[in-house]
Amino acid sequence: MDERSFDLRALLHGNGQSIGVWLALVGLILFGVLRYENFGGAYNIASFLNYNAMFILIAVGMCLVIITGGIDLSVGSVAAFSSVCAAYLSPYGLQVALPGGVLAGMALGAVNAFIIIVLRVPPFIATLATLLGAKGGSLVLSGAETIAVDWSSNFTRLGMGKAFDLVPWSILIVLVVVVIAWIVLERTSLGRTLLAIGGGEEASRLMGLKVGRAKAFAYLFSGGCAGLAGVFLASGFGAGQPLEGVGWELSAIASVVVGGTLLTGGLGSITVTVAGALLLGLVFNILNFENGRGTISLSAYWQQVIRGAFLFLVILLQMRVARRRMDREAPT
Amino acid sequence: MMQAQSLRAWLVRYGMLIALAALLLVNVLVTPNFLQMQTLFVNISQVATIAIVAIGMTLVIATGGIDLSVGAVMALAGAIAPLVFTSAFGIANPTLGLLAAIVLPLLVAMACGLFNGLMISVLRVQPIIATLILFISGRGIAQVLTNGNLQTFSNPAFSYLGTGRVLGLPFQGWLALALALLAFWLVTRTIHGRHLLALGGNERAAELSGVPVRRVKIGVYMICAFLAGIAGLIVVAINSASDAARNGNLMELDAIAAAVVGGALLQGGRAPVFGALIGAVIIQLVKYTLLANGIEDEVALIAKAAIIVAAVALQQGRRE
Amino acid sequence: MAPLLSMQGIDKAFAGSVALDKAALIVGAGEVHGLIGQNGAGKSTLIKILTGVYERDAGEVTFEEQSLRVASPREAQARGLSTIYQELTLVPLRSVTENVTMGYEPRSRFGLIDWPKAHRRTREILTGFGIDIDVRAPLGEHSTAIQQLVAIARAVSLEARLVIMDEPTSSLDEREVSVLFSVIERLRASGTSVLYVSHFLDEFFRICDRVTVMRDGRDVADHAIVDTRKSALIADMLGRDIDEVESAGMTELGGGTASVGELVFEAKAVATNRRLRHLDIAVRRGEIVGLGGLLGSGRTEAARAVFGADELSSGSLHFMNQAAPPKTPADAIAAGIGFLTEDRKAEGIIPDMSVRENLTLALLPALTRNGRIHRGEERELVDRFIRSLGIKASHRDQPIRELSGGNQQKVLLARWLAIHPKLLILDEPTRGVDVGAKFEIQSIIREHVESGVGVLLISSEFEELVEGADHIVVMQDGVSVSRMSNPGITEERLVSAIAHSAQVSE
Questions:
Q1: What distances in angstroms separate CA A29 from CA A33, A303, C77, one per listed residue?
Q2: Strand ranges, E, within C15-124
Q3: Residues 6 or more apart from A31 whose CB is under 8 A from it?
Q4: C-alpha to C-alpha distance for A86 and A92, rounded to whole angstroms
């Protein structure tokens, strides 16, 4: 038995389904490069990654929550709420607005954690309620208007500027978050506890694991990621937007699930989640290009339909994998 | 510890009625013009749609599931109706057109319910995820059909659904009551109701006792979608206009809140149909109280969220 | 020398039914202490109180001369108590290494988990158990026996003062049991105590120093193993006289005088997608056929296949008077087959429904006309069964979850008797039931067999199979491997047939 300290299989989440994601990703990239002129250009890549940074963040946060067997439907509203907070804090510069937005997200994540762990309300109801509450909060805080950011401060540099004039800040920050999430999941007790909880919460408790604390972390992390995404939103578009974020949770769930993370929890990978988010983003990117070529004309309303269809296909795929796994279970 | 338990049990049992009484009292004292016919009228008008959807939601929750797509189904059904009777066919055959304008949307609604039911019972997808698909794309489909346009029309026969009166009170109120009675009879007196409750109480035990699990689940999601379809038509009838972007917006939350406040258990096994009616009234009164006293919609959202959490948390405590 | 563990006067009740009634247990240091009792006697509850899963209603616990009150399994582990539970309490989706090291993973320089080291350590521990497997693979991909050994390995590796083992050998073969016993010897030699619960009486005489017998929620005897013998323990467990036990038997299932009639069903080479690989079995009217085997041998899968709950992938199932075998439970019920499942909480009772509704659940189609249920007929039927089975409920509309385990089981049995079955499949019919109700249920079963019902009986209480069955089919790994007939079946023969992989001829 070989002793590779770096297990490529684990990195790619040795599971037939995730190979599909990488293949689809490569396939779509090739398709785009061959078919559209500016697809492979620096501008498209940079703006694509910049825009999808938000969705990658939310998907990563959602991944940890789904791994524990839960779900976080509030991420879109939390991002919107935090974008409003960040916009208000923008005059004080990035140093205040960034942590401010993230903390706002984490605070809402804490509310989720409290309702789920202490009040024992099922995650989907709890986060559905937070979705409502955060939406209400955003509207109250913003007076139901978009809040322009302070352009004179350094705030907009996050969403629109580049580090070392090369790589957009957003991409750099997302990379850091992804690496941190990966380390936590793969190399810390906390991460393994998250996976164990999803695989069997009662068994985890009996094994002596700190179930409550781990779950709280997952929801706080998801809230924090959504908060950060909100800061990107405000910084990238120049305004805090209380009504944004609708349907984001669906994109996040689809991204997480496409790579083989089980909806019921217990199995999951950060890298494949990122690949899934990129895949979904690419689908939209390509559709935009097609729209531009005039071969198809999709109104904005089609976006929601496509998101739904994507999730549907992903679920079909996963159910087949899950069915095969069920047949391998031990008898009684 | 015994004290806390019995306080909680007492709250769960009578909380609903206490909340209702409290809300009525507050309104009588504080809200201007509360004790007028007009107010009653407006409230019954609005509560009817919530109540009808809540009945369907209660049945779905009784099987241990949930249906997040009801709002989208409302929008879809509401969008199809005007398309039918403003079409060439509809104008040429007014009576048939009217009939089709009611039947077709309901068929489409049931098709949505069938989709949900199949995903959940055959493909074994969790209900939240399965109904999440239509939750997002259903409204999108409606908007694609209408190209995002508001459809206004004038069809007095159709409008009766939303503006008609029976014995001086809104038609939809009576309809809601009738549907509730039908649902109650179904649940308490028929084999289908017993199967439904057994399924929700313990699915594996029910299946091993001969309950046709797949059929029951598909049926209940179709019924829920059907009722949502009716609600969608009523909303369109009230306004004589179909706005796919707004019809049924956030209705799923209202319906879940009404069902849960009314005593439905999220794990399944109970279908308190009349509780759902009372729950709907409570939700409506909360909305109305805030609105009539000048508080913004947005705060109502937060209040509703808090109510849902409180109702479920109380339930969960009792379950232990 | 003060004992390592002392539990005194422990009370515990669950929603109206008493699980423990002034139970006591004393374990010395470096001692292997056996805990024995029938299903429902309270052993599991006592252990769960000790390890923090449940909270006791009353009583004192002293561990290492200090008062012990733990609120969670984590605390219990921290205090030096390590447990192997009866149900598998590991995570099948996670790798073997993770399951063994969870919470105690070896760290590298930056405080991060060192996986190669973890894999190595796990492999070492398992080699000490005679196991050589792929530790990186998900636990669920290994057999039940391996999974159980991994659970034991984890508990033993936690360096506790007291290791509690609840039915650790239920899926192990003879060789694996020997390995386990040598591990227990090592523990005892190092001063660690072991609390050992098992169904296999012979094991107590091989490995234990002392044994405590429990019955109906309390401890009724505490002997040094050398001071007692098997029949004395059995008599203590059942609350019967030794002589009575030795002459009249330990159950109410024996003494059948029915003439065996025609074939009710026959299964030939039946296999399903659910780990049933090859089943040959037949049941006739008026006879009891027992299914014996270890945990994981496929007995419940066999029952499900016969009932139509699982789809057949090959083989044939032939029922008298039926053209085709049942494809769904509803079909089976219509054909006159009843299935009393093993775990009434998971697959038996509808907890929020009343006694009445639970009792008539399988019979509903017969009580329904045009969709409406005939309440009057239903009431009469339920009252009849409450009387004839001696079900203790305050009213037929009482929620079933308020009844004791024994009465719940009677309601479920009534559910199946109500359909006038030709075949009754019983999976652990007296599990988790107090001794009095146990005898009543056994009598009821015997009555119905006498009147011509065929019974397929799965039971891990060997005396039920030995005394009640006309034939016993032994299963292993999803295959029916051997068959034996009464008269002539003894517990020794049965145990040896189950424990060995070789074919045993009659």
A1: 6, 20, 52
A2: 17-27, 32-36, 58-63, 66-67, 81-84
A3: A286
A4: 10
Q: Is residue B15 part of a domain?
A: no
Q: Which residues of C65-103 are buried (b: 16+ CB within 10 A; e: fewer)?
A: eeebebebbbebbebbbbbbbeebbbbbbbbbbbbbbbb
Q: How far apart are CA C295 and CA C299, in angstroms?
A: 8
Is the residue at C134 inside a domain?
Answer: yes
Verify whether the Cβ–Cβ distance C89 to A206 is below 8 Å.
Answer: yes
Answer yes or no: is A155 within a domain. Answer: yes
Nearest residue of chain C to residue B203 (CA atoms): C347
Is the distance from CB of B81 to CB of B102 less than 8 angstroms? Answer: yes
Residue-wise pLDDT tens digits, C48-58: 899 988 999 99
Continuous H helices in C296-339 = 299-307, 329-334
For residue A57, what are its two tokens?
């963040």
ipTM above 0.90, yes or no: no
Q: What pLDDT does C38 receive?
A: 82
Nearest-by-Cβ selection for B205 from C307, C330, C347: C347
CATH of the domain at C288: 3.40.50.300
How many domains does one find in chain C? 2
Question: Measured between CA atoms, how close is C271 to chain A, in angstroms?
Answer: 13
Query: Could you tell me if C136 and C71 lie in one domain?
Result: yes
The domain tally of chain B equals 1
Residue B28 lies in a domain: no
Would residue B3 count as lying in a domain? no
- Chain B partners of C353 at a C-beta cutoff of 8 Å? 197-198, 201, 269
pLDDT score recorded for residue B318: 60
Tokens of A254: 């689809």
Q: Are residues C302 and C396 in the same domain?
A: yes
Average pLDDT of the residues in A250-278: 87
Question: 201-230 in A: which are within 8 Å (CB) of C?
Answer: 202-210
Residue A34, domain member (yes or no): no
Flag whether pLDDT at C504 surpasses 70.
Answer: no
Contact partners of C by the rule of 3+ C-beta pairs under 8 A?
Answer: A, B
Of the residues C247, C272, C292, the one at which a domain ends: C247
Nearest-neighbour CA in chain B from C416: distance (Å): 9
Name which residue leads in pLDDT, A177 or A48.
A177
Residue of A nearest to C478 (CA): A331
Tell whether pTM > 0.90.
no
Which chains contact A through at least 3 pairs of Cβ atoms less than 8 Å apart? B, C
- C478 in a domain, yes or no? yes
Q: What is the amino acid identity at position B9?
A: A
Which residues constitute the domain of residue C417? 263-499
